[in-house]
Structure formats: structure tokens, C-alpha cells
Amino acid sequence: MSKTERTQLRRVWSPHRVFGVLAMSALIATGLFGSGRLNVEATAAPPTTAGSTAPHILLIVEENRSYSNIVGSKNAPYLNSLAHTYRSATNWYAVQHTSQDDYVELISGSNHGIPNGKPYAALTVVDNLHAKGIPWKAYYEGLGSACMKGTDPTGQYDVFHNPFHYFTRYGTTTGKWCSSANLATEGVVRYPGASALVSALDGSGAPDLVTLIPNDCHDMHGDLVNGNPCYGVAGTRLVTAGDTWLSVNLPPILKSSWFAANGTVIITWDEGTPSDKSGCCGGVAAGGHIPTIVISSTNAGGGTFISTGDHYGTLRAIEEAYGVPLLLNSANTINGDLVGAFG
Questions:
Q1: With 70 as the cut, is the pLDDT of residue 257 above it?
Q2: Across the strands, what pairs with 139?
Q3: CB–CB of 195/248 below 8 Å?
Q4: Terminal CA-CA length for the chain
Q5: pLDDT in the model for residue 77
């Protein structure tokens, strides 16, 4: 995220048990031991999940790190264990060097001209899932309430990392994403912690597509609000804190029956170094070279994924997995396709 955006806002090496002790020590050492083109309009009816054989995909988005900051770094041992065990995309890029643009592009195939013209009536991938009866949820660490608008006073929940609020269907009233009629199966809600999330995923009516966004102290971004656990922290300490948070929160999901049933986890970053953009998509991936790790119940030992692409290629892979229409730039093959890494 740019300095201007932040000013506006003011606002585990192994998934095995032995790493738990090392991960917690690392977290304490950092001083960041905080709380943990055209489609038909989607209908407003709640999804029907009975007999669903849809895949299970979890998308986790981290912040502001280039590929070289993570892959091979001693500051991210858990992420590197995942990259080594599963599949690491070695030529993946961010579209923009602006957080809100990248998040919006990840769910809708365009930035729609941010900030002009918002809220947008354009469809997103979750609208197309809803129309097909496939449930989804987006979990935000620190979000005050379902489909909350505005910012969290603590500054750890970052509204710029919530692309859903840029769209007309963001809200709790009838027909909106988080209406009482369908909130049990879809919507933008507060992250309840790993244990509660796994209980929800392994329970009835579980979402098939899940987005999980850590707060600014746990996503490698850092925070500008004095009094927060990561106020004034930068660089490798933030990388270690984010890596440790993942080492605590992700392993229970990887052990869940939800993941075992055709599960895939995508860990990506919103943006990296903007100068590192020449290798992708006609040289216009201004967000730079980013890490992207794909963890699947069937892709272990698959090696690196060397195809080239960007956030639109990530969206395309998700759309293809669920058999829903390709939105805008995700339909352009120049932006790649991450589905080959799924296994």
C-alpha cells in the first residue's frame, strides 16, 4: 500500500507440532504477539448446498512483499516449507502497485477505475458462485461485524484490503451479500480463529470458496496506529510475524476434512516491488514479482510452477475450478492461469 493510502486510512518451517514451539518463540521475539465482460445478474436467493461436489478453495492474501523477500528467506521458514513441499509459482505478478486495486482485481477481473464510480454494480466471482448455488465466505481478522463499513478504530483491520466494500451488493439488507437470509452460508464476516473456522468448514452448510485476510499485524503490512502491537515495526520482523501467524492458523485447516475433500489453498501477496515487472503480461504488471504458493491435497511433490501470470490468472483458476464465467481480464490468456498448479 502506498504512503498516501495509509495516510488516508490512519488507520510454521514445518506444519508439524514441533514447529509450534519454534513458531511461538519467533512471534514473541518479534514483539508482535497480538490477537491472534457480461454475465447475468446473480439472484438474491440463498445457495442450496445439498449434494454439492464443488471444490474447496481457500485464498489467503498477504501484503507488500516481493518474491525474493519470501522464497528462500530465513525469515519465513513455514512458508518455505510449504513452497518446498507443494507448488510455488516462480513467475507470478501483481497487477497494480496499489492494494485496493489488486484486491478488487482478484475478485472481479478489473479495478473498475478505482476510486471513480464506486460502489460498482459489476459482478464478482462470488456473485457467479451464488448464482450457481455455491456458498462462499470472506473472513477478515479484526472486522467489527458482518459486512462492516468503515475502519476499525484499532487500525489493524484494513478496509483497503476488503474489496467487497467497493460493490453495491456489500451490505446486510435483503438481497445483499450479508443479509440474514443467507449469512449462514455466505458473506463477509469476522475471522473467528483457526479452531472455530475449522469447525465451520467441517460442519454442515460450509462455504466452498473461502477468503481469509489477516490483520495488518499478521499480513506483513504493519500498522500506523500508535498503541497497536506492530506500530513502528517494519522489514523482516513483519515477515516473521506473518509467517508465524500462518504457521499457527493454517495447519488446522490442512488437517480438516474440508481440505481433504478436494481442497486447495492459495497464498499470494497483493504487491511486490513495482520495478520488477518485465517478466509478465506484456510488461504491464506494475505490482511486481510476488510469491504465490499453492497447497493442494493432490499436488505435494509437484515441484515449482513455472508458468507466468498475475492476479487475473489466479482469479481465472478459481473460476475454472467452479465452472463459472471468466470475468473481464481473467479471460485474457496473456494474464496466465494458476489452475495448472492445483494438482
A1: yes
A2: 189, 212
A3: no
A4: 32
A5: 98
